[in-house]
Amino acid sequence: xxxxxxxxxxxxxxxxxxxxxxxxxxxxxxxxxxxxxxxxxxxxxxxxxxxxxxxxxxxxxxxxxxxxxxxxxxxxxxxxxxxxxxxxxxxxxxxxxxxxxxxxxxxxxxxxxxxxxxxxxxxxxxxxxxxxxxxxxxxxxxxxxxxxxxxxxxxxxxxxxxxxxxxxxxxxxxxxxxxxxxxxxxxxxxxxxxxxxxxxxxxxxxxxxxxxxxxxxxxxxxxxxxxxxxxxxxxxxx
Length: 238
Fold this sequence. Notes:
Radius of gyration: 34 Å
Oligomer: single chain
Number of helices: 1
Strand content: 35-45%
Largest sheet: 8 strands, antiparallel
Shape: rod-shaped
Distance between the termini: 89 Å
């Protein structure tokens, strides 16, 4: 009958429509596979493939880096672990630039390395001006303690002997061998906790030729005046 034919034609038309929609979806899916979209905004590097190359799943096409915020990771000796925490300030410099950048500690590793007894620290760096590049090596300065009016001498003034440390102090033209107690060290200088006072003159070269009580003549750079200044102790990490 006419009604039965119309119903059958409608069903066939609906089936063809569904098939056409499926074909469109398949074509759209295949088309989407021809476009590679980054999972985040970033800076693309030099592409590793050329137009027309066949590539396989997992093959690297180009490096993509998010550069507005970078992770700064470095290690410090375990003896300084109690001196730092999340939020501690750090400074670092890139040799090629000479500029000093600042950041704060974001996270500290949960365990100490058994190989070198150090611990990894991480800071997050704002890089809005794109002055830094992922993968760069930097020199990190992490202040861990502050000494008000610390007494400092150059490292080369110290003369270790066994488990003690001495300096040759110059007074009235004579060399006096003085035992001292070193403290923190920073920037090729050593803090003297006990044994010297600000203004004392110490020998910084040729100590192996000196004896206690020997006559000396002060001249640079073999003797320097002990300085008193505010100093932050800064272990170096890389």
